[in-house]
Backbone:
């Protein structure tokens, strides 16, 4: 597929074209210079701007960074030409369907596949009896490239570890034939005692949690200070399990070319998935290629699960390309989500509201085959100054599908408990909730004393309060009623730690036509990565954005840039900055004595007007095209990695937000509706306010869902998810979501590449707490268990 993952308005190669192990053009459509085509041959002429005219939405006098540029991949998506994993069509392809276990723990006593094998169109039924020998998946975060979410043998024996585990893969000529045949697989089980209740799991004993380090911290004697506090609150908050429900279900289209495997995946970790699949399948890493140019939502759930492994194994066994696309029910069965939590938050304060003690402890559930706890104490480590602190996360074990990272792991649920407790304390003190937060604003990291790289949360609070009209709020709960509706407002702090993982690298190709191609094994999941990085490269190289192509989503590209932790902007940005330095040095090496730049060192030169110029004498300028033409070169290619991510070891770095919510609660039905929402965000420099606001709004919508409707219901007798579909598992729809306002401090962080911190996850944090606090203000009723359904508000 020529130009896989390239997003500059040109379509990739035909959907049926399968890349083999050989070389191919790196350029979109295989054409490094679309302007050199014959007139009328450009397949997408409307997607291009004239070379000498900036896009109308940009501000060239202020640079491309910070301009609200529309999404560069937008035209492809609107025309239906952006190919997703389940849309790739291959010659001879068959379709997969899974049969799932119906017991939580035990072994398969009998497995009858005869009826399924005899069904129309069936090519293969794969079970543990005929599956290739495979290793377990290397668990995410246990090594540099590990991407798996459970460490179990995959269809290697008759053991069952959760209700919904795949026990058979059926391949057939159509999806309908495969689905029908899978329903004909018959299994009986020898069940064993299983722990499928969170309460029973806690009663059986817990262990200390671990998430990139121990989840325990004590500073002083917080329990003693709490007991001695002039005013205190001490409450328990509960959050339910939640499932990953991206619009695009998990899918992969896989094909073997001899011993080379190509996987068209819905992935947010192409390089990590390629390495992990190679490990599982027992092949060399360079023989596995994972391609994922477009992803319809990831949120931490689209790394490596069993379905990609099963698809690859079945394709090899049948010697046919395979498309395996999980049904919506299949996502609930195979892909884990957010774990349930029970959290205690206790805060002691003096009469002025200064925190003397902060206790945030509790328990969450996980499985023995996955160590992925919800680090819900993360917000308590950075939000507030306190005289003493006690933080602890315990883990209880369930026999269920392995849970996973989910947008703002830990922070989404931890901020709910912490920020509701702060609101409760403000009410007990008779202090405005915003004022109480400002009185406890830390000047250094409360957990370890590191200085903040940049923290402008106070400015975010003040700007947000003014825009939201907080000064017009009557502080008395239940004071405002309009007909049947109680009206209330609430607020909460949002935060997410800055992340930049090792391994960021990019390749830049600059041509004698003055075009640049940037390639990186990163991901475009709708967050605007391609657009923002196109702007960055355009500004750093002084090129119009329509002369820049950004290609991603291919494990053969440079870098280990997982779309996780809101770290892609920082990771790619650091690598682009490094590659720009290398590129300038390479170009200066090509100069001859006739160049106006001859004799200049790299530190004396910068990018200007599609070329290079002397920093203190812009008249000494030469275009990239002229430099390469003079040297007789068609292109120059450089590759570079960003420096080690040491900034967060020295500085405390977080994205922050002040969240404001207005709700209306029906006095008759108990229904809660969010009528206004504002996020006032402090995320460093905003590279593109248009795509950034979309990211924050998406996080807020996810937080609204957690607050009001989302809950995965598990039958505690059997461990089976009973609401495995959108008919029963509710998520916010348009009528649940008001117009969401987003504003920014837009202060560059001097310690972050490009001055930008992450925005993809911070929006979900604080949102549920702001809703819950607004519900209390509306009704005077404090509900501490999510979601805030009508039965809890009546």
Residues:
């Amino acid at each position: 597929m020529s130009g896989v993952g390239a997003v500059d308005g040109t379509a990739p190669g035909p959907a049926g074209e399968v890349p083999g192990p050989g070389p191919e053009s790196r350029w979109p459509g295989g054409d490094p210079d679309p302007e050199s085509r014959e007139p009328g041959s450009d397949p997408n002429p409307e997607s291009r701007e004239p070379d000498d005219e900036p896009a109308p939405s940009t501000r060239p006098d202020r640079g491309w960074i910070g301009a609200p540029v529309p999404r560069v991949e937008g035209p492809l998506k609107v025309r239906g030409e952006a190919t997703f994993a389940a849309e790739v069509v291959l010659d001879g392809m068959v379709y997969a369907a899974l049969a799932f276990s119906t017991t939580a723990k035990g072994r398969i006593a009998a497995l009858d596949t005869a009826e399924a094998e005899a069904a129309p169109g069936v090519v293969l039924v794969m079970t543990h009896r005929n599956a290739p020998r495979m290793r377990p998946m290397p668990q995410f975060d246990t090594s540099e490239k590990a991407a798996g979410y459970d460490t179990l043998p995959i269809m290697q024996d008759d053991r069952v570890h959760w209700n919904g585990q795949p026990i058979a893969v059926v391949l057939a000529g159509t999806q309908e034939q495969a689905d029908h045949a899978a329903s004909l697989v018959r299994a009986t089980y020898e069940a064993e005692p299983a722990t499928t209740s969170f309460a029973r799991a806690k009663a059986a004993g817990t262990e200390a949690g671990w998430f990139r380090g121990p989840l325990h911290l004590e500073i002083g004697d917080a329990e003693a200070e709490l007991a001695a506090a002039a005013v205190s609150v001490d409450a328990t908050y509960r959050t339910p399990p939640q499932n990953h429900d991206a619009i695009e279900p998990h899918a992969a289209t896989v094909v073997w070319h001899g011993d080379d495997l190509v996987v068209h995946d819905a992935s947010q970790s192409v390089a990590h998935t390629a390495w992990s699949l190679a490990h599982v399948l027992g092949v060399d890493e360079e023989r596995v290629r994972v391609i994922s140019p477009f992803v319809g939502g990831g949120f931490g759930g689209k790394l490596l699960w069993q379905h990609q492994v099963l698809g690859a194994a079945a394709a090899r066994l049948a010697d046919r390309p395979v498309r395996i696309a999980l049904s919506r029910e299949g996502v609930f069965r195979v892909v884990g989500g957010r774990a349930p939590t029970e959290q205690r938050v206790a805060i002691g304060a003096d009469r002025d509201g200064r925190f003397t003690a902060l206790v945030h402890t509790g328990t969450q559930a996980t499985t023995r085959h996955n160590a992925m706890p919800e680090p819900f104490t993360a917000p308590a480590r950075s939000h507030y100054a306190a005289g003493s602190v006690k933080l602890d996360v315990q883990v209880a074990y369930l026999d269920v599908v392995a849970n996973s990272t989910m947008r703002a792991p830990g922070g989404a649920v931890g901020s709910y408990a912490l920020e509701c407790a702060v609101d409760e304390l403000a009410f007990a003190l008779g202090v405005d909730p915003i004022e109480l937060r400002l009185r406890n604003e830390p000047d250094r990291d409360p957990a370890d004393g590191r200085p903040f790289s940049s923290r402008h949360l106070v400015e975010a609070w003040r700007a947000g309060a003014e825009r939201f009209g907080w000064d017009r709020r009557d502080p008395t709960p239940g004071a405002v009623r309009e007909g049947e509706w109680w009206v209330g407002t609430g607020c909460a702090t949002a935060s997410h730690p800055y992340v930049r993982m090792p391994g960021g690298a990019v390749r830049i190709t600059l041509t004698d036509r003055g075009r640049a191609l940037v390639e990186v094994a990163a991901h475009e999941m709708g967050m605007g990565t391609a657009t923002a990085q196109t702007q960055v490269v355009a500004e750093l190289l002084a090129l119009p954005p329509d002369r820049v192509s950004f290609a991603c989503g291919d494990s053969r590209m440079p870098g280990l840039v997982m779309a996780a932790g809101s770290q892609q902007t920082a990771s790619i940005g650091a690598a682009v900055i490094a590659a720009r330095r290398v590129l300038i040095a390479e170009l200066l090496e090509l100069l001859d004595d006739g160049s106006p730049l001859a004799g200049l060192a790299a530190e004396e030169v910068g990018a200007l007007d599609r070329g290079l110029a002397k920093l203190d004498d812009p008249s000494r300028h030469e275009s990239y095209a002229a430099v390469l033409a003079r040297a007789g070169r068609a292109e120059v290619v450089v590759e570079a990695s960003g420096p080690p991510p040491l900034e967060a070891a020295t500085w405390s770095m977080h994205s922050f937000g002040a969240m404001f919510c207005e709700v209306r609660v029906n006095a008759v039905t108990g229904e809660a509706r969010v009528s206004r929402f504002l996020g006032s965000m402090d995320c460093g420099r905003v590279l593109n306010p248009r795509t950034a606001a979309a990211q924050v709004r998406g996080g807020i919508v996810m937080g609204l869902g957690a607050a009001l409707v989302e809950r995965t219901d598990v039958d505690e007798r059997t461990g089976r998810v009973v609401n495995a579909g959108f008919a029963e598992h509710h998520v916010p729809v348009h009528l649940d979501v008001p117009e969401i306002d987003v504003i920014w401090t837009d202060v560059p962080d001097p310690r972050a590449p490009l001055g930008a911190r992450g925005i993809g996850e911070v929006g979900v944090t604080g949102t549920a707490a702001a809703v819950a606090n607004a519900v209390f203000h509306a009704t005077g009723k404090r509900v501490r268990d999510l979601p805030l359904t009508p039965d809890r508000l009546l």
